[in-house]
Each structure stands twice: as C-alpha cells, then as structure tokens.
Amino acid sequence: MLSISVKEFLYWKKKQLSKGGDHRSFAVLLNCIGGISNSELNLLRINPERKLYLKKNLEQLEFIWDNHLLNSSPIQYLCGVSFWRDLKLKVTDKVLIPRPETELIIDIVFKIFGKQSQKLIFAELGTGSGAISIALALAYPLWDGIATDIDQNALDIATENYLNCCKETNLKFYCGHWWTPFESLKGKIDLVISNPPYIPKDTYEKLPKEVKNFEPKIALLGGEDGLKHIREIIQKAPLFLKEKGWLIIENHFDQGEKVKQLFIKSKFNSVEIVNDLSGVGRFTIGRYK
C-alpha cells in the first residue's frame, strides 16, 4: 500500500476532475484501482492532515483517467468493474455496462412477488454481465433461475460474477438465442425478464462514442425500429410462461405504448408501463392470462 497525505490527495483529485469527466466515474476509478471506497472519500475532509493508503500510485491512476477522457473509454471497462445495486461486477467489452435505470427491474419484481416468496422458476433472456439474475438469486434463494445469452463470452463473465457474488446454487447459465434453451420448460416458467437490444438503427448511429465505439453492438441494436427482439420475445412468451406468469421487458424511452400493444396482442393482461426515476416509460410488464 502506498502512503500519501489526504491534503496532497485532495489537491490531485481536484486537478483530475478539472480536466473533465464526472464524479461518479472518478469514484469508480478510485474504488476499483485506488482502493478508496465512496464512504472513505466522503470522510477525507474531516481530517486532511492524516495519511491515506492507495493500492496504486497517483501516476497510475492519472494514466487511466487520462485514457478515459482522451479516448472516451468507459471507466468501467478500464477498471474491469461496474457497480450495480449492491453488486460489484466484472465487466469487459463483451458485455453491456449495467445501467442504473435497469436496477428498477428488481424493485418491480419485489412489488409483484413481495420480498418473501415461495419456490418458483424465473428466467432472464440476454443476461450480459448477469446483474439482474444474480440480484434475484440473492434476493430469493428459494427460486430457481436460468440466465441465457447468445454470446458464450458474456455467459463466462456472468458465471464468474455469480460465483464471486453468491454462495447460493439456485442460478444456472445456458447459451442460446432467446427462447431456444427453454424447450424443456414450456408452460413452466413463473417469471421472465429481459433487457434486450432495443436501440433503433437510426438512433444507434447517433449514440455517444463512449457507447457506440466500445459497448457490444449485439447488446444494443434492436433492428430498424428497435423492436425486432422485443417482438420475438413477447410473441413466444406464452409458450413458456405458466398460466398467470409474468413478463417484464425493458424498452427504449419512447417505445412503451408500442410494446404495450405487443403484450395485449399476445393475450397478456394487467399490462402496465412502468416509469424509471426520470419519469420515462422504461419498462413494460404483463401477466399471461
């Protein structure tokens, strides 16, 4: 561990943030590479004369921060870590960086099922880093979960994250396109969740370079209208859901009404558009018959 005065560190921190970037990304860098937690950061000014201990020296941290600013490289990829709810997840450019707004999916599940629930089967289609499924496996140890992805590289990362985060054995991972891994579970799944690629082609071309140039296209692009994958997931869901089983889909901010109609067309009821914390219709949910 490297020793530095708090006063010197705070001066260096101010200098780095003056170059650009945001406080959240800088906090990720300090936590993951420097070994300084958010709670420790908040306490630094109370006693500026004391010593601080870093896992890496300031030059190494500055090199990573400059790379982030110069090349628009996501800080999560540079650090190899993303924080999501109370999880610390490994991420590489093989998986989408889990977004804070997606965290509300877990709260939607809590609202539907309560925080204590009997044994049931849940599935996540397109798990990426595994964030959603791991959070559910931890919250509901009696549940049996299956998380899938079309990319084996993503599944390897999700599996590693599960082993690092959880002592339970109630989550399994399978490779395949959407519903393909579930042939033996037709009519048996109580809850299906998916945050599929939903960015329309025209919108994808205009994405910020930190997203478009680094995050996997396969996890973002949803066809011409953004609904290609959502449409397939909803249309086939009735084959796999139990009677009164739930489907939760994350969609683009302006797709809620269209996705709601797809649910209704496939005979779902209790269909609802759920807003995120910004008031945007980010999720569409429904119950099959």
Annotate the secondary structure layout:
Layout: E1 2-5, H1 6-17, H2 23-34, H3 38-43, E2 51-54, H4 58-71, H5 75-79, E3 81-84, E4 87-90, H6 104-113, E5 121-125, H7 131-139, E6 144-149, H8 152-165, E7 171-175, E8 189-194, H9 201-205, H10 209-212, H11 228-240, E9 241-250, H12 256-265, E10 268-275, E11 281-288
Parallel strand pairs: 5-6, 5-8, 6-7, 8-9
Antiparallel strand pairs: 1-2, 3-4, 9-11, 10-11
Notes on the protein architecture:
With 289 residues, the chain is of the alpha/beta class. Helices cover 39% and strands 22% of the residues. It has helices at 6-17, 23-34, 38-43, 58-71, 75-79, 104-113, 131-139, 152-165, 201-205, 209-212, 228-240, 256-265, and strands spanning 2-5, 51-54, 81-84, 87-90, 121-125, 144-149, 171-175, 189-194, 241-250, 268-275, 281-288. The protein has a 7-stranded mixed β-sheet with strand order 7-6-5-8-9-11-10, with helices on both faces. Strand 3 and strand 4 form a beta hairpin. Helix 11 (228-240) runs parallel beside helix 12 (256-265). The termini are far apart. The model has no long low-confidence stretch (mean pLDDT 94).
